[in-house]
Specification:
Elements lengths: L1 H13 L1 H44 L6 H7 L1 E4 L13 H4 L2 E5 L2 E2 L6 H4 L11 H17 L2 H7 L2 H7 L4 H30 L4 H31 L3 H30 L5 H12 L11 H14 L11 H36 L6 H13 L3 H28 L13 H6 L10 H32 L4
Antiparallel strand pairs: 1-2, 2-3
């Protein structure tokens, strides 16, 4: 088998078109990776400057009432890890800035897509686009005639008479082309490592990315070579593998995605907001002194401090009411957003099962996951941002309630020293080990596809008689 692989590579290297194509791919991948990293670093720098500006504004707030500061709020910026330059995933459409304020949980805004002059079907040009679409096509064109050419030239009979089995021939020729795909893949990962900032976590993620693409390339080259050996001529082989590739990359993702949306239905935005607003209004109205629930809370604190009126309380009851209202709003948020997050996770898992029929779906899911740009990582950021919002607003409400002011004293203020003492929001992309179990199913389906095609090659080689 090694000799066959060696001879295949000698033939490939002698082909000038192959050499020119290789140079083109390496230069294209290098350029795309470099441009992606430059753009990523510029975005990170802009985001860092905006984050410093927001923090500076917060720390230099004029003396004001803590509740007013809660309405002023702050901002959470979703950091972009360096692998976003390789596969942007859903980051290009989900936004990266979230306003954090009292009484309300806002939606994330300022996505790249919303600010782009034009929107491509495939999104921005990143190395994942070339690795997922262009290189597999090139591998198909390299392998679809590998066995057909031997059959048409009658050379396959000579090879079999010399002791090479059909299975060995198919495996050797598919591995020859697969090695070329690995070369381009390793070149991309190497360039990414050299040009971009790296750390042990990035290297782990790159290793999983390398494994995912390597499996997919093996599936593509093995299937293409198998069809070349099975079908009567290379035209039939090319037509068949291209039909399969189009089905995998265009039709099945759309069909399965629509099915997932029908099975696990997210509420439309209008209904969702109306339901949230209706349930939120059932809580304590911090600005309505005649609200029934406010009265119940007042009686509780009057009894606890054994006084007859709010003016006799040693604390500011307004701050207590605000925090109670906030905590009720948190329950509403947990219920509705929690339900949405649960549906999204079910959609993600069901979509991953499309890998049974479509290895390309498993590749995309694994690529986005290991690059940290899929829905799972996005929801993790939203959850951490909401947790910080609650800590921030509680700190302000507690200061309002227990900082020394009395009920009704809305002119009471705190200075910038207090605002400086409130920690800002920080977020780091979770380590891949935390979410690895979510992507094992993608790797499993890719392995299963690779094994299935190997079995098909073996079965076909037993049935084939070329003599």
């Amino acid at each position: 088998m090694v000799n066959i692989i060696f001879n295949e590579w000698k033939n490939l290297i002698r082909d000038r078109l192959f050499l020119y194509s290789t140079v083109f791919f390496v230069l294209s991948l290098s350029l795309v990776v470099w441009m992606g990293i430059i753009q990523q670093e510029n975005q990170q720098q802009s985001q860092l400057e905006a984050q410093k500006h927001v923090r500076k504004q917060w720390e230099n707030l004029e003396a004001m009432n803590p509740h007013r500061a809660a309405h002023y709020g702050s901002f959470a910026f979703k950091p972009l890890n360096i692998l976003n330059a390789m596969d942007g995933g859903i980051n290009d459409i989900t936004g990266n800035v979230l306003q954090l304020e009292g009484h309300v949980q806002n939606e994330i805004i300022y996505s790249e897509a919303s600010q782009a002059l034009s929107i491509s079907k495939f999104g921005k040009l990143k190395s994942s686009l070339i690795l997922q679409y262009v290189i597999p096509l090139f591998l198909i064109f390299l392998s679809y005639g590998s066995i057909s050419n031997e059959k048409e030239g009658q050379r396959i009979k000579l090879l079999v008479l010399q002791g090479a089995s059909i299975e060995k021939l198919v495996n050797a020729k598919s591995i020859s082309v697969w090695i070329y795909g690995l070369f381009l893949l390793i070149a991309t990962v190497t360039i990414q490592s050299i040009l971009g900032s790296t750390n042990p976590e990035i290297f782990k993620r790159l290793a999983y990315i390398l494994l995912s693409y390597a499996l997919y390339y093996f599936i593509i080259t093995s299937l293409s070579t198998y069809l070349s050996a099975t079908l009567k001529d290379k035209t039939s082989a090319l037509s068949s593998i291209l039909a399969i590739w189009i089905l995998w990359t265009i039709f099945l993702p759309k069909i399965w995605g629509n099915a997932v949306d029908k099975i696990h239905v997210l509420p439309d935005r209008k209904t969702f907001k109306e339901d949230m607003r209706a349930e939120r209004n059932q809580g304590i109205d911090g600005h309505n002194p005649y609200d029934k629930r406010r009265e119940e809370l007042k009686n509780k604190y009057l009894a606890e401090y054994q006084v007859d009126s709010l003016s006799m309380l040693p604390i500011n009851f307004d701050g207590i009411v605000m925090q109670a209202d906030e905590e009720y709003g948190n329950l509403v948020w947990d219920k509705h957003f929690g339900s949405n997050y649960s549906i999204m996770q079910k959609q993600k898992r069901l979509y991953q099962f499309s890998g049974l029929l479509n290895p390309f779906a498993s590749l995309q899911s694994a690529s986005m996951g290991f690059c940290g740009t899929d829905m799972i990582h996005h929801l993790d950021f939203l959850k951490k941002a909401e947790d910080y919002r609650r800590v921030l607003i509680k700190a302000l409400n507690d200061k309002h309630a227990y900082g020394g002011s009395k009920t009704g004293d809305w002119k009471w203020t705190v200075d910038s020293e207090f605002f400086k003492s409130v920690q800002g929001f920080t977020y780091e992309t979770p380590m891949i080990s935390k979410h690895l179990s979510r992507y094992l199913i993608d790797l499993l389906f890719l392995f299963c596809w690779a094994i299935l095609i190997k079995v098909l090659i073996r079965v076909n080689s037993v049935k084939t008689n070329v003599l």
